[in-house]
């Protein structure tokens, strides 16, 4: 097709799944001078096509799940480039060009699942970086100067081997994690980074931090300065005490301190007015180690303190979810017997209510009710008698979908759900329809799901129908019993 046709007006192209192993790449791509985003996932690329140099307006480039050993080429010549997603390739440090970090608008970089052994050089020059994912590499050290300039980070993942963590410890949203490989001694955050990056107001927007599965003996002092924290995971460490400075976490909603060596919680924890979830399982807490004011946290919904040394439950701590199993000396509160608590002993049985109303229950009432219940018990519920259609959903959804806690998003294209890369999640367009899957662990540690389908106001009828239909298909594929919810 000639360049004078429709090609110069195309804004986005998804060529994922095509075979470009032989070096063939469509030459007409260079005629798409207005292209804003380009997806080349799972195309067998071994190097970046030279046609990219002509795409001067390109903003988003995704080349995941290929055989790339280098990103050297034309990237640095694309002045508007904002996002580079090159996860699951064969990239080494020598294959990451330094000059891409000079791009003024670069804000998203995903080099996870590669062969990096250190933080890319000159990365600290990307002052507008918002999303940085270097997980699933072999990086065992973080340079002191890294966070000095990256002050606007919203998502930071440096976990070397997250697959070795249990599902409940993996970050599902924005996460900042610092860990060492299991076969090397963990390190703490660099001191210079603490003194400069944090004291100068760096990382002021960081909301989620995951430092689980390290060997931390204390909470890094720099964390106490992050007043914007909403979720903090310090589980599976060797922390024995917390500072009173935790009252600086005024926005904190979730705090996970499970599997540590804590014998007490500081009284300052009672000042965390927005705290909703507190996990302290598998520590050494006793009744005196839990501040009495914890029960006055009005927003607290979940309190998990299984496998400790609790003897009593602090007053007022009965929330939506309360887990105090495996506390051998625990004594539950006795049933009240004084007259001020007579409401506790109200008998709501039918027989008692009939007696109070002055009616005499039928002599054979129990027998009749028993026969009725027996007959009803033999009948199958109508919804249990339904059978799911024997359909093959594997062509729409991958095998590991819904098996790891987190959020997955699909966009409806040509009646088919296309999974959205993690870096591009969170931005929906009114002319499109999406399916959103949230996978989480319930109170019993079992996988559970919530499925939503989002319909844009300007979306066409085929996309609307596709999102609703495939949301149900996803539910059937997972064997979930939840409802699909329209958003």
TrEMBL record:
Pfam families: Gelsolin (PF00626), LRR_1 (PF00560), LRR_14 (PF23598), LRR_8 (PF13855). InterPro entries: ADF-H/Gelsolin-like_dom_sf, Gelsolin-like_dom, Leu-rich_rpt, Leu-rich_rpt_typical-subtyp, LRR_dom_sf, LRR_domain-containing, LRR_R13L4/SHOC2-like, Villin/Gelsolin. Gene3D superfamilies: Ribonuclease Inhibitor (3.80.10.10), Severin (3.40.20.10). Residues 159-196 are annotated as: Disordered. Signal peptide: none annotated. Residues 222-304 form the Disease resistance R13L4/SHOC-2-like LRR domain. GO terms for molecular function: actin filament binding. It comes from the Eukaryota. The keyword Glycoprotein does not apply. One of its GO terms (cellular component) is cytoplasm. Keywords: Actin-binding, Leucine-rich repeat, Repeat. Residues 414-486 form the Gelsolin-like domain. This is Leucine-rich repeat protein SHOC-2. It comes from Coregonus suidteri.
